[in-house]
Amino acid sequence: MPLGSQHKRGWAMTNPPRYLTPPELAKLWHVKAGTILAMLRSGRLRGFNVGSGRLRPRYRIPPEALIEFQQQQSAKPPPPVARRRRKPDPDVIAFF
C-alpha cells in the first residue's frame, strides 16, 4: 500500500501519513477535533507543538504515536480467575 493510501475506513494504519494535525486525525477517527486536543493535553496521545509560543498551539501527531495509542486501547482478555475448591465438610457423608 503506498504512503497515505486509503481503505474502507480511513487511512491504513500499517502505513499512515507522516504527521497528522488534530483536525485530520479527528476526521479519520470520526470524533471532534476537541477530543483529539484533550487527548494530547492529558498525555493519552503523544504529539508535539510546532507553533511558536506566542500564538495558539499547532500540534502534529507522529505515526508512531497513533500505533502506540491504538495498541493501548485494544481489548485485552481478562486475567484468569483463580477458582477455589470448597473443602469437603467432615460431618457430611457422601452417598454417591
Keywords:
96 residues; alpha+beta; two-stranded antiparallel ribbon; 4 strands; 8% strand; rod-shaped; disordered N terminus
Task: Tell me the layout of helices and strands.
Elements: E1 6-7, E2 10-11, H1 22-29, H2 33-42, E3 48-49, E4 59-60, H3 63-73
Antiparallel strand pairs: 1-2, 3-4
Structure overview:
Helix 1 crosses helix 2 (33-42). 30% of the residues lie in helices and 8% in strands. The protein has helices spanning 22-29, 33-42, 63-73; strands at residues 6-7, 10-11, 48-49, 59-60. The protein has a domain at 23-73. The strands form two sheets. A two-stranded antiparallel ribbon has the order 1-2. Strands 3-4 form a two-stranded antiparallel ribbon. Strand 1 (6-7) and strand 2 form a beta hairpin. It starts with 5 loop residues before the first strand and ends in a 23-residue tail after the last helix. It has 96 residues and is an alpha+beta fold. The model is unreliable at 1-8 (pLDDT under 50).
Q: Provide the structure class.
A: alpha+beta
Shape: rod-shaped
Strand content: 5-15%
Helical residues, percent = 25-40%
What's the β-strand tally?
4
Spatial arrangement of strands, main beta sheet: 1-2
SSE string, helices as H and strands as E: EEHHEEH
Q: How many helices does DSSP assign?
A: 3
- Provide the low-confidence segments as ranges: 1-8
What would you report as the Rg, rounded to the nearest angstrom?
24 Å
What is the mean pLDDT? Answer: 80
Largest sheet: 2 strands, antiparallel
Alpha-carbon distance between the two ends: 66 Å
